[in-house]
Amino acid sequence: MDLPGLSIASQSDGNPERVCFGFLLLPEFPLYGLVPAIEALRIANQNNGKKIYDWQLISQSGGPVHAGNGVSLNVDTTIANAGWLPIVLVFGGNHPTRHLSKSVLNWLRRLARHGSVVGGIDTGTFALAEAGLLHGRRATLHWESFFTFRELYPDIEVIEQLYNIDRGRITCAGGHATLDMMLDIISGLNGPALAQVVANAFVAHRQRDSDEPQRLDPWPPRQGGKSPLNRVLQGMEENIQTPLSARALADQAGVSVRALNRLVHDSLGDAPMSYYRKVRLQAARRMLFYSDLAIRDVAFACGFGSPEVFSRCFKAHFGVSPREYRRRTSSHELERYRPELRQELTF
After folding, report:
1. Cα separation of 118 and 112, whole Å?
2. Start-to-end Cα distance in the chain
3. pLDDT digits over 297-317, tens only?
4. Band (339; pLDDT cuts 50, 70, 90)
5. What is the 3-state secondary structure (H, E, C) of 23-64?
Protein backbone atom coordinates (compact mmCIF):
# COMPACT_ATOMS: atom_id res chain seq x y z
CA MET A 1 0.00 0.00 0.00
CA ASP A 2 1.70 3.16 -1.19
CA LEU A 3 1.55 6.91 -0.78
CA PRO A 4 4.00 9.40 -2.29
CA GLY A 5 7.11 8.99 -0.17
CA LEU A 6 5.44 6.33 1.96
CA SER A 7 4.94 2.59 1.79
CA ILE A 8 2.70 0.93 4.38
CA ALA A 9 2.55 -2.84 4.67
CA SER A 10 -0.51 -4.62 6.02
CA GLN A 11 -0.16 -6.32 9.34
CA SER A 12 0.30 -10.06 9.02
CA ASP A 13 -2.40 -11.09 11.52
CA GLY A 14 -4.65 -13.08 9.24
CA ASN A 15 -6.25 -9.90 7.88
CA PRO A 16 -4.04 -8.96 4.91
CA GLU A 17 -6.22 -5.96 4.01
CA ARG A 18 -6.27 -4.48 7.52
CA VAL A 19 -3.73 -1.88 8.59
CA CYS A 20 -3.06 -1.46 12.30
CA PHE A 21 -1.81 1.87 13.61
CA GLY A 22 0.21 2.11 16.80
CA PHE A 23 -0.19 5.34 18.79
CA LEU A 24 2.65 5.77 21.29
CA LEU A 25 1.52 8.14 24.04
CA LEU A 26 4.21 10.00 25.96
CA PRO A 27 3.33 11.87 29.18
CA GLU A 28 1.51 15.17 28.51
CA PHE A 29 0.65 14.07 24.96
CA PRO A 30 -1.68 16.41 23.00
CA LEU A 31 -5.22 15.04 23.09
CA TYR A 32 -6.19 17.39 20.27
CA GLY A 33 -3.89 15.41 17.99
CA LEU A 34 -4.83 11.91 19.11
CA VAL A 35 -8.61 12.27 18.81
CA PRO A 36 -8.68 13.18 15.08
CA ALA A 37 -6.35 10.26 14.31
CA ILE A 38 -8.53 7.69 16.06
CA GLU A 39 -11.83 9.13 14.86
CA ALA A 40 -10.66 9.25 11.24
CA LEU A 41 -9.94 5.51 11.35
CA ARG A 42 -13.21 4.74 13.14
CA ILE A 43 -15.27 6.69 10.62
CA ALA A 44 -13.42 5.04 7.72
CA ASN A 45 -14.26 1.60 9.11
CA GLN A 46 -17.87 2.57 9.70
CA ASN A 47 -18.36 3.79 6.15
CA ASN A 48 -16.33 1.15 4.37
CA GLY A 49 -18.58 -1.72 5.42
CA LYS A 50 -15.78 -3.76 6.92
CA LYS A 51 -12.93 -3.14 9.32
CA ILE A 52 -9.95 -2.01 7.29
CA TYR A 53 -8.14 -0.15 10.10
CA ASP A 54 -7.26 -1.03 13.64
CA TRP A 55 -5.24 0.80 16.28
CA GLN A 56 -3.48 0.28 19.57
CA LEU A 57 -2.72 2.81 22.28
CA ILE A 58 0.79 2.14 23.56
CA SER A 59 2.88 3.43 26.46
CA GLN A 60 6.28 2.53 27.78
CA SER A 61 5.06 0.86 30.96
CA GLY A 62 1.46 0.02 30.09
CA GLY A 63 -0.05 2.23 32.78
CA PRO A 64 -2.45 5.13 32.19
CA VAL A 65 -0.95 8.18 30.49
CA HIS A 66 -1.91 11.76 31.32
CA ALA A 67 -2.54 14.11 28.42
CA GLY A 68 -1.40 17.71 28.49
CA ASN A 69 -4.87 18.78 29.64
CA GLY A 70 -4.86 16.35 32.56
CA VAL A 71 -7.12 13.69 31.02
CA SER A 72 -5.84 10.17 31.77
CA LEU A 73 -6.10 7.43 29.15
CA ASN A 74 -5.61 3.72 29.60
CA VAL A 75 -3.51 2.04 26.93
CA ASP A 76 -3.79 -1.34 25.22
CA THR A 77 -0.22 -2.54 25.51
CA THR A 78 3.43 -1.69 26.19
CA ILE A 79 6.27 -1.12 23.76
CA ALA A 80 7.67 -4.50 24.83
CA ASN A 81 4.45 -6.35 23.96
CA ALA A 82 3.14 -4.37 21.00
CA GLY A 83 4.90 -6.47 18.37
CA TRP A 84 5.54 -5.27 14.85
CA LEU A 85 3.20 -2.60 13.50
CA PRO A 86 3.10 -1.20 9.96
CA ILE A 87 2.75 2.37 11.16
CA VAL A 88 3.50 3.98 14.52
CA LEU A 89 2.83 7.60 15.43
CA VAL A 90 4.47 9.18 18.48
CA PHE A 91 2.46 11.77 20.37
CA GLY A 92 4.96 13.87 22.31
CA GLY A 93 4.37 16.05 25.33
CA ASN A 94 5.18 19.50 26.67
CA HIS A 95 8.67 18.33 27.66
CA PRO A 96 9.47 16.51 24.43
CA THR A 97 12.85 14.99 25.34
CA ARG A 98 12.30 14.30 29.04
CA HIS A 99 10.48 10.99 28.54
CA LEU A 100 12.58 9.59 25.69
CA SER A 101 14.10 6.61 27.45
CA LYS A 102 16.57 4.26 25.79
CA SER A 103 13.88 1.61 25.56
CA VAL A 104 11.52 3.95 23.68
CA LEU A 105 14.22 5.12 21.26
CA ASN A 106 15.48 1.59 20.63
CA TRP A 107 11.92 0.42 19.99
CA LEU A 108 11.42 3.14 17.36
CA ARG A 109 14.75 2.29 15.72
CA ARG A 110 13.86 -1.39 15.64
CA LEU A 111 10.48 -0.70 14.05
CA ALA A 112 12.11 1.46 11.38
CA ARG A 113 14.72 -1.20 10.62
CA HIS A 114 11.94 -3.73 10.06
CA GLY A 115 10.01 -1.54 7.64
CA SER A 116 7.53 0.27 9.84
CA VAL A 117 6.47 3.78 8.93
CA VAL A 118 7.34 5.93 11.95
CA GLY A 119 5.79 9.33 12.57
CA GLY A 120 5.80 12.16 15.09
CA ILE A 121 2.78 14.29 15.94
CA ASP A 122 3.35 17.76 17.43
CA THR A 123 6.45 17.40 19.63
CA GLY A 124 6.60 13.69 18.81
CA THR A 125 9.00 14.79 16.07
CA PHE A 126 11.63 15.19 18.80
CA ALA A 127 11.44 11.43 19.42
CA LEU A 128 12.20 10.66 15.77
CA ALA A 129 15.11 13.09 15.78
CA GLU A 130 16.51 11.74 19.04
CA ALA A 131 16.30 8.20 17.64
CA GLY A 132 18.27 9.26 14.55
CA LEU A 133 15.38 8.56 12.19
CA LEU A 134 15.28 11.92 10.42
CA HIS A 135 18.79 12.11 8.95
CA GLY A 136 18.61 13.46 5.40
CA ARG A 137 14.90 14.12 5.68
CA ARG A 138 12.84 17.25 6.10
CA ALA A 139 10.55 17.45 9.10
CA THR A 140 7.85 19.59 10.64
CA LEU A 141 6.24 19.97 14.05
CA HIS A 142 4.13 22.53 15.90
CA TRP A 143 5.45 26.00 15.12
CA GLU A 144 5.89 26.83 18.82
CA SER A 145 8.64 24.23 19.06
CA PHE A 146 10.58 25.15 15.90
CA PHE A 147 13.29 27.19 17.56
CA THR A 148 13.93 24.68 20.33
CA PHE A 149 14.06 21.84 17.79
CA ARG A 150 16.53 23.69 15.59
CA GLU A 151 18.79 24.37 18.56
CA LEU A 152 18.84 20.70 19.53
CA TYR A 153 18.99 19.23 16.00
CA PRO A 154 20.64 21.80 13.71
CA ASP A 155 21.37 19.23 11.00
CA ILE A 156 17.69 18.45 10.40
CA GLU A 157 15.84 20.73 7.99
CA VAL A 158 12.64 22.03 9.60
CA ILE A 159 9.82 23.34 7.45
CA GLU A 160 6.69 25.13 8.58
CA GLN A 161 3.84 23.21 7.02
CA LEU A 162 0.94 21.08 8.19
CA TYR A 163 2.62 17.71 7.79
CA ASN A 164 5.37 16.06 5.79
CA ILE A 165 5.72 12.53 4.42
CA ASP A 166 9.29 11.67 3.50
CA ARG A 167 10.48 8.12 2.77
CA GLY A 168 8.85 6.20 5.56
CA ARG A 169 8.74 9.08 8.05
CA ILE A 170 5.75 11.25 8.87
CA THR A 171 5.94 14.47 10.85
CA CYS A 172 2.92 16.61 11.65
CA ALA A 173 2.11 19.86 13.43
CA GLY A 174 -0.72 18.25 15.40
CA GLY A 175 -4.20 19.60 16.06
CA HIS A 176 -6.30 20.07 12.94
CA ALA A 177 -3.27 19.15 10.82
CA THR A 178 -3.54 15.60 12.17
CA LEU A 179 -6.88 15.24 10.41
CA ASP A 180 -5.41 16.51 7.12
CA MET A 181 -2.59 13.97 7.47
CA MET A 182 -4.98 11.10 8.23
CA LEU A 183 -7.17 12.01 5.25
CA ASP A 184 -4.08 11.88 3.03
CA ILE A 185 -3.13 8.45 4.39
CA ILE A 186 -6.67 7.09 4.02
CA SER A 187 -6.84 8.47 0.48
CA GLY A 188 -3.59 6.77 -0.41
CA LEU A 189 -4.55 3.44 1.12
CA ASN A 190 -8.25 3.20 0.23
CA GLY A 191 -8.99 5.96 -2.22
CA PRO A 192 -10.02 9.64 -2.19
CA ALA A 193 -13.74 8.81 -2.07
CA LEU A 194 -13.42 7.25 1.38
CA ALA A 195 -11.21 10.11 2.54
CA GLN A 196 -13.91 12.59 1.45
CA VAL A 197 -16.53 10.63 3.39
CA VAL A 198 -14.35 10.92 6.49
CA ALA A 199 -13.83 14.64 5.88
CA ASN A 200 -17.57 15.16 5.54
CA ALA A 201 -18.16 13.33 8.81
CA PHE A 202 -15.79 15.80 10.48
CA VAL A 203 -17.67 18.66 8.79
CA ALA A 204 -14.34 19.59 7.23
CA HIS A 205 -14.94 21.44 3.98
CA ARG A 206 -11.72 20.23 2.43
CA GLN A 207 -8.50 18.39 3.08
CA ARG A 208 -5.69 20.91 3.26
CA ASP A 209 -2.50 20.20 1.33
CA SER A 210 0.51 19.07 3.34
CA ASP A 211 2.61 22.11 2.42
CA GLU A 212 0.10 24.73 3.51
CA PRO A 213 1.42 26.99 6.30
CA GLN A 214 0.53 26.37 9.92
CA ARG A 215 -0.14 30.05 10.57
CA LEU A 216 -1.93 32.62 8.46
CA ASP A 217 -0.30 35.99 7.93
CA PRO A 218 -1.86 38.30 10.54
CA TRP A 219 -1.92 41.20 8.10
CA PRO A 220 -2.78 39.86 4.64
CA PRO A 221 -1.48 42.01 1.77
CA ARG A 222 -3.97 43.54 -0.60
CA GLN A 223 -2.11 42.01 -3.54
CA GLY A 224 0.02 38.91 -3.99
CA GLY A 225 3.05 38.22 -1.77
CA LYS A 226 3.75 39.06 1.84
CA SER A 227 2.95 42.48 3.22
CA PRO A 228 5.90 44.66 4.40
CA LEU A 229 4.87 44.10 8.01
CA ASN A 230 4.79 40.32 7.58
CA ARG A 231 8.24 40.45 6.00
CA VAL A 232 9.46 42.32 9.07
CA LEU A 233 7.90 39.77 11.42
CA GLN A 234 9.37 36.91 9.40
CA GLY A 235 12.80 38.53 9.60
CA MET A 236 12.48 38.77 13.38
CA GLU A 237 11.40 35.14 13.80
CA GLU A 238 14.13 33.83 11.51
CA ASN A 239 16.88 35.80 13.25
CA ILE A 240 16.46 35.15 16.96
CA GLN A 241 20.01 34.19 17.91
CA THR A 242 21.66 37.01 15.96
CA PRO A 243 19.16 39.88 15.90
CA LEU A 244 19.00 42.07 12.83
CA SER A 245 19.49 45.80 13.00
CA ALA A 246 16.67 48.23 12.28
CA ARG A 247 18.29 48.95 8.92
CA ALA A 248 18.35 45.24 8.02
CA LEU A 249 14.70 44.85 9.00
CA ALA A 250 13.78 47.88 6.91
CA ASP A 251 15.69 46.49 3.92
CA GLN A 252 13.87 43.17 4.29
CA ALA A 253 10.54 45.00 4.22
CA GLY A 254 11.61 47.21 1.33
CA VAL A 255 11.05 50.44 3.27
CA SER A 256 13.14 53.13 4.93
CA VAL A 257 14.02 52.99 8.64
CA ARG A 258 11.64 55.89 9.25
CA ALA A 259 8.84 54.07 7.42
CA LEU A 260 9.65 50.91 9.41
CA ASN A 261 9.21 52.79 12.68
CA ARG A 262 5.87 54.16 11.55
CA LEU A 263 4.71 50.81 10.15
CA VAL A 264 5.43 48.85 13.33
CA HIS A 265 4.15 51.56 15.66
CA ASP A 266 0.89 52.04 13.76
CA SER A 267 0.24 48.29 13.45
CA LEU A 268 1.60 46.97 16.76
CA GLY A 269 1.78 50.01 19.01
CA ASP A 270 5.49 49.57 19.67
CA ALA A 271 8.91 50.52 18.35
CA PRO A 272 10.47 47.93 16.02
CA MET A 273 13.41 46.95 18.25
CA SER A 274 11.23 46.86 21.38
CA TYR A 275 8.80 44.53 19.63
CA TYR A 276 11.74 42.47 18.34
CA ARG A 277 12.98 42.02 21.93
CA LYS A 278 9.55 40.71 22.94
CA VAL A 279 9.61 38.24 20.05
CA ARG A 280 12.96 36.95 21.34
CA LEU A 281 11.60 36.78 24.89
CA GLN A 282 8.67 34.73 23.68
CA ALA A 283 11.09 32.36 21.93
CA ALA A 284 13.06 32.12 25.19
CA ARG A 285 9.92 31.33 27.16
CA ARG A 286 9.09 28.48 24.79
CA MET A 287 12.64 27.15 25.12
CA LEU A 288 12.41 27.25 28.91
CA PHE A 289 9.14 25.35 28.74
CA TYR A 290 9.91 22.79 26.06
CA SER A 291 13.58 22.06 26.80
CA ASP A 292 15.98 21.45 29.67
CA LEU A 293 18.68 23.68 28.21
CA ALA A 294 20.63 25.73 30.74
CA ILE A 295 19.38 29.29 31.19
CA ARG A 296 22.73 30.59 29.95
CA ASP A 297 22.28 28.63 26.71
CA VAL A 298 18.71 29.89 26.31
CA ALA A 299 19.94 33.47 26.77
CA PHE A 300 22.58 33.20 24.06
CA ALA A 301 20.28 31.25 21.73
CA CYS A 302 17.75 34.10 21.90
CA GLY A 303 20.20 36.88 21.17
CA PHE A 304 20.96 38.21 24.65
CA GLY A 305 24.56 39.15 25.38
CA SER A 306 24.65 37.70 28.86
CA PRO A 307 22.44 35.65 31.21
CA GLU A 308 22.17 38.68 33.48
CA VAL A 309 20.75 40.90 30.74
CA PHE A 310 18.39 38.11 29.71
CA SER A 311 17.14 37.61 33.26
CA ARG A 312 16.47 41.33 33.74
CA CYS A 313 14.54 41.59 30.47
CA PHE A 314 12.60 38.39 31.11
CA LYS A 315 11.57 39.44 34.61
CA ALA A 316 10.63 42.94 33.48
CA HIS A 317 8.29 41.48 30.86
CA PHE A 318 6.86 38.37 32.53
CA GLY A 319 7.13 39.38 36.17
CA VAL A 320 9.26 36.36 37.14
CA SER A 321 12.86 35.36 36.51
CA PRO A 322 13.65 32.62 33.95
CA ARG A 323 14.59 30.28 36.79
CA GLU A 324 11.31 30.91 38.63
CA TYR A 325 9.29 30.54 35.43
CA ARG A 326 10.88 27.16 34.75
CA ARG A 327 10.32 26.07 38.35
CA ARG A 328 6.64 26.97 38.20
CA THR A 329 6.03 25.31 34.84
CA SER A 330 7.77 22.16 36.02
CA SER A 331 5.35 21.68 38.88
CA HIS A 332 2.76 18.93 38.60
CA GLU A 333 -0.16 21.30 38.20
CA LEU A 334 1.24 23.54 35.47
CA GLU A 335 2.65 20.66 33.45
CA ARG A 336 -0.94 19.97 32.43
CA TYR A 337 -1.11 23.13 30.35
CA ARG A 338 0.64 24.63 27.38
CA PRO A 339 2.25 27.95 28.29
CA GLU A 340 -0.01 30.12 26.17
CA LEU A 341 -2.98 28.97 28.27
CA ARG A 342 -1.31 30.12 31.48
CA GLN A 343 0.38 33.38 30.59
CA GLU A 344 -0.39 35.21 27.39
CA LEU A 345 2.36 37.34 25.91
CA THR A 346 0.91 40.80 25.45
CA PHE A 347 2.71 42.97 22.97
Report:
1. 7
2. 49
3. 999 999 999 999 999 999 999
4. very low
5. EEECCCECHHHHHHHHHHHHHHHHHHCCCCEEEEEEECCCCC
Q: What is the pLDDT of residue 8?
A: 64
**Helix locations, 162-306, DSSP H:** 176-190, 192-201, 228-238, 246-253, 257-268, 272-290, 295-301
Quickly count: other Cβ atoms within 10 Å of residue 105's Cβ.
Answer: 16
pLDDT tens for 94-152 read 888 989 999 999 999 999 999 999 999 999 999 999 999 999 999 999 999 998 999 99
Q: At 7, is the secondary structure helix, strand, or coil? A: strand
CA distance 225 to 150: 26
Q: Hey, what amino acid is at 79?
A: I
HSE of 94 in the Cβ direction (CA atoms, 13 Å)? Answer: 25
Taking the C-alpha atoms of residue 163 and residue 145, their distance in angstroms, rounded to an integer, is 14
Measured CA to CA in angstroms, residue 61 lies from 90, 98, 102, 116, 215 at distances of: 15, 15, 13, 21, 36
Rounded distance between C-alpha atoms, residue 130 and residue 109, angstroms: 10
Strand partners, 91: 25, 121
- Report d(CA 309, CA 337) in Å as an integer: 28
* CA distance readout (Å), 44 to 19, 47, 68, 197, 267: 12, 5, 27, 8, 46
Q: What is the pTM for the complete model shown? A: 0.78
Cα–Cα nearest to 302, from 218, 236, 347, 250: 236
> What's the Cα-to-Cα distance from 311 to each of 144, 146, 297, 298, rounded to whole Å?
21, 22, 12, 11
> How far is residue 311's CA from residue 296's CA, in Å, rounded to a whole number?
10
What gap in Å lies between CA 170 and CA 117, rounded to an integer?
8
What are the residues whose beta carbons fall under 8 Å from the beta carbon of 198, sequence distance 6 or more? 40, 43, 44, 47, 182, 183, 186
User: What type of residue sits at position 178?
Assistant: T
In DSSP notation, 164-180 reads EEETTEEEE--THHHHH
